[in-house]
Amino acid sequence: MKYKIITLGCKVNIYESEVINELLLKEGFKNVEENPDIVIINTCSVTNMADAKSRKLIRSEKRANPKALMVVCGCSAENHQKELEDLGIDILIGNRNKSKIVTLIKEHLKNHEKYLNFAPITSDFEDMEVDKFTTHTRAFLKIQDGCNNYCTYCIIPYLRGPLRSKPKELVIEECQNLVNSGHKEIVLTGIHTGRYGKELGYDLTSLLKELVKIPNLERIRISSIEATEITDEFLKLLASSDKICNHLHIPLQAGSDKILKLMNRKYNKEEFMSIIEKIREVRKDIAISTDVIVGFPDETEEDFRETYNFCKEIAFSKIHVFPYSKRDGTVAAKMKNQIEKKVKHERSKELNALSLELENVYAKKFIGKTLKVLIEEEKDGYFMGHTSNYLKVIVKGDLRINEIVPVEIVSVNNNIIVGNLLYSLV
Q: Is the pTM of this model over 0.85?
């Protein structure tokens, strides 16, 4: 039978969809883009827009493939069970038992009965693994799930459950298998990646120390880490191992101590800045990207201006800007002084403009310098890929996907980075 998988949201969802894909292929199913017998949609619920997109996608796929078996899972399913039950879905589950979707599909094909089940999310890590990534050159490796932080704006801890980690030995084994399959860069991902291993008696740095020993693994990228999780041991490893990518994504969320406190973040501006300075002491040219929420309840124009100026002072390599999305069931949803949509839009626009400015400033530092680029895709005769510090570079030459090549950066214009290949592979 033929199937297609549609994935919305984060790298964890992408990884979990890859698990489902690999399991289906092993059972003899065929992955297609058109006329599928089975449609699997892995949904996202991080914002209201993500929920709306999930529902719209379910409806459109039902219209396009009315005879297909419809399978829906993920955070939006977990968050809106009742609403989705009326959309004609054959198999509807939340975030638990994604690894059992193949079994559920087989059962449905025999008995043709609808399956709706939302298993409680417990403290054990659902066993999943991937041998080879088919959707990305860089392989994602889910090492952790759940979150115990309960930031006041965030619905994800309620949908993903408590903090839990994949045992270190299994992470190392999966990473080795991915490298054996040809992947040169591994992206460690989770819902709260930086808290990896806390409930098992170790931490992210101890895992990284083991992973850097794997032969033929050239890059390890950390999808996200909180400022409070940058320890002295982590900094020592960052200084000593060039396998750790020259890029860290460290969510700020707000540059106002007042708003940070309302968000239930675990640091203030001074502490955040101190961590950034320590990182740059050991990696001078490291790229540091961030997330910022604008229009959080009670954010005044002065608060926003403080955030804007703080981002400029830090000089992030990129800012991912999110207008605050009111999520029912969170503390922030009940707060007074909710900000108008128009104001959130204006602040987002301004901060996005700053991000583009900072991206160009950062990238221009590397004009005339040679950086190694992992070639990931080809389009219109050009190849594209990322450097260790997460610059997306366009280059022309005789290249192969998944090769790492030296490239001289020659121009940066509106975030388009062009390089010259220093030697040919073929």
A: yes
